Amino acid sequence: MTALLDIDQLRTFVAIAETGSFTRAADVVHKTQSAVSMQMKRLEERIGKPIFERDGRASRLTEEGERLLDYARRIVRLNAEAMSSVAGPSLSGGVRLGVPDDYAERYLPEIMARFARSHPDVELTVQCEPTIELVELIDRGDLDLAIVTHDAANRPSEVIRRERMLWVASSRHAVHREEPLPLALTKPISRERECPWRRAALPRLEEVGKAYRVLYTSRNSAALSAAVLAGLAVSVFPESAIRPGMRVLGTTDGFPALPSFDIGLLRNPHETSDLADALAMHIVQGLDNLADAEAAE
């Protein structure tokens, strides 16, 4: 008979993998360190293979542990979604979500589908605006939640995803070789309210002495993608936004490395609601890749 995996053990296993420590994981799952160790011993007995091995004074995942981790994350998330849908309170009413249009295109389909399955009677209103304007809408109480580009210097948020920022050009053109370099970037609202991607990219071109001109600007990501795909300009996109027909430009092409950036979640500071909390859970579960990103670094 096939052994059944224990959800609580898997939740603890994921916490250890994501915190890198039995001690820190114990705080996350609200158990003693000895209880955490016992859970992992029983999980290894259940699957019949070791999932941790000693690495000096630390523990790291075995090959079997790495393979189990992906399944464990999915099982834990699906369990939370099932409990929310079946055993949770029946919620109704409306909830307001703000999101930049480029994030909406990539992330919203899955989030909305999962949220609708769990809460079919809830009306979800989505407003697409740049991060800077979403922060203002949140502060005014005009939105319940907002997915934003995290900017600790401006408005800290709950970081839920990390991505690489990349130079991109058309794979069918050689626009990246033109001098000065034509760029397609987000249109700044003002000098003080500039997109953090633009703010990070331009100084790096200046540091390597690459002349440029901003030839196309827009607040719409689809318009910037069109300029890139048409071979008219180079732009800066997150890794998840790369489309067929685009190529990534690196140091061998003469382009300086760009920093990673964080995606955050903002909540209405004036009031909370069960609906907003439920939607926030789906957003966090849908976007979370922090453990993978940190492992890659």
Descriptive account of the structure:
This protein is α/β, with parallel strands linked by helices and 297 residues long. It has three domains: 81 residues, Winged helix-like DNA-binding domain superfamily/Winged helix DNA-binding domain (Arc Repressor Mutant, subunit A, Orthogonal Bundle), CATH 1.10.10; 101 residues, D-Maltodextrin-Binding Protein, domain 2 (3-Layer(aba) Sandwich), CATH 3.40.190; 97 residues, Periplasmic binding protein-like II (D-Maltodextrin-Binding Protein, domain 2, 3-Layer(aba) Sandwich), CATH 3.40.190. It is built from ten helices and eleven strands. The strands form three sheets. Strands 3, 4, 5, 6, 9, 10 and 11 form a seven-stranded mixed β-sheet that branches. The C terminus is likely disordered.
Brief descriptors of the model:
297 residues; alpha/beta; Arc Repressor Mutant, subunit A; D-Maltodextrin-Binding Protein, domain 2; two-stranded antiparallel ribbon; 44% helix; globular
Q: What's the structural domain tally?
A: 3
CATH architect. name of the largest domain: 3-Layer(aba) Sandwich
**How many extended strands?**
11
| Low-confidence blocks of residues | 290-297
How large is the count of helical segments?
Answer: 10
Major sheet size, sense and barrel closure: 7 strands, mixed
